[in-house]
Amino acid sequence: MVLLSGANNFVLRRMEEGVDFDSALTQARAKGLSDIDSASKDATERTALLARLAFGVESILSLLESVRGLSPQNARIAYNKGFTHTANTPTDPSGNKGAAAVCAVDFTRCDPYHSLFLSRGKRIVFQGSMAALVTPFQDGAVDIKRLGEHVDFHLAHGTDALVPVGTTGESPTLTSQEKADIIRAVVRMAKGKRPVVAGTGTNDTRTTVEHTRAAKELGADAALLVTPYYNKPSQEGLYRHFEAVAKAVDLPLCLYNVPGRTGVNLLPETVARLSKIKNIAAIKEASGSVEQAAQIHALCGIAVVSGEDALTLPLLAQGATGVISVLANVVPKAVADLCAAARQGDWARAREIHRRHFPLAKALFIEPNPVPVKTAMKLMGRDTGEVRLPLCEMAPSNVDKLKAELKALGLI
What we know:
Elements: H1 6-16, H2 21-30, H3 43-55, H4 57-68, H5 72-84, H6 99-108, E1 119-120, E2 123-124, E3 128-132, E4 137-138, E5 141-142, H7 144-156, E6 161-163, H8 176-190, E7 197-199, H9 205-217, E8 222-226, H10 235-248, E9 253-257, H11 259-262, H12 268-274, E10 280-285, H13 290-299, E11 303-306, H14 312-317, E12 322-325, H15 332-343, H16 347-363, H17 371-379, H18 396-408
Parallel strand pairs: 3-6, 3-12, 7-8, 8-9, 9-10, 10-11, 11-12
Antiparallel strand pairs: 1-2, 4-5
Helix pairs in contact: 1-2, 3-6, 4-5, 5-6, 7-8, 9-10, 10-12, 12-13, 15-16, 17-18
């Protein structure tokens, strides 16, 4: 394989630490790394670096094979060409004219929203550990001060993105004004250090458009759209729902498939259709089916994000870019380290982290989310544990099971 130059590897490492591309490039020059390609600032190099950072080499090769229809050999050639700016050779070793060049050119055609990766400003949005934030309550009211403490906790422990007012944030029992207040507060508290992916989905298309537009105006970097629940639309209805939102609001969108809650399954074929819409960039896959995630990968290049902590490792292994995590509210560094290990190809480390925290991940769902995670945070002294009806406190026997897992990890 042709490796990136020393300078560009330095840039990649700095970007992994959260430094934006231009600053990392300036630092490389300041260190006297003279092997920076003259084209380093063009779209190909920027896109290639971000794609490699987001997916890892093997995932990109798999995407090139499935999405572009290349043989493994030609995928490797195309990958190398795309990263080294030598895509001017018209014929690859197998005699296939232009295969490598075409794929390298495809790197440059990535728009700001959607292709092999999604970037938004300085940081990749749908990558790594994305914490599904709880909404803290005090005597029934949203506690913005404590919410700020939660955000600071994640910033200090490696969480890659913040996801407010989703399922874990008890969005069904929040008013529109409370949702706006929470999104505004999280954007302000994140201070541009982490992307904010706001939950805006409802079972009414017009309302979803309104909420998504509001999230954009409040400064969210992207929106998370659950499939419409209760009214159980057909696959065509689902397609038209998401298409309407994407056309109405120019913001990166992450589909959210969780049939256990909504009563409808967003099928891989529908996801593939939706992936052709430029600002539909990812899907949070929480169907519980590793096979369904694999089918999505086989049909299109949309970023797949795990929606279940217990399945994060197997989904990462087949190319998922990260997880929207409940577990990260309790052990944020562990979830971030798991995603980072997978991205770096250190699967032994990833398995170790997964196996150590798997029992806790399961315990956080012994009752409906977010009741167990809020209970865990209360036991750790980080939240009141309050939830809004129709949710209620955990059964004592289940609290004991949760305590056992927290004690096993030394968290209480």
